[in-house]
Design a protein that fits this description.
single chain; mainly beta; four-stranded antiparallel beta sheet; three-stranded antiparallel beta sheet; 46% strand; elongated
Length: 78
Amino acid sequence: MGKPLKIDITEKVVAKFKEEYLELYSNKFIIGKFYINAEESKYVLEDGYIYEGGRFYRIIDTRRDVNPSVEGCDLGWC
């Protein structure tokens, strides 16, 4: 079972101004929004992205699904 990979993408994040929020992009793909006019500023990010400690991260699941036909190697051919 793999451990999630956490990649710092902060230096690659750019923002585009919209009326009520900033659109956040990494490599030309939208990764979320930063609401600046709310009572409390907040980030709403797409799945697979987090904001933590002032940095943006891409989370990649490195877990590989086990094929049930080879799990346990009961037939001795794996």
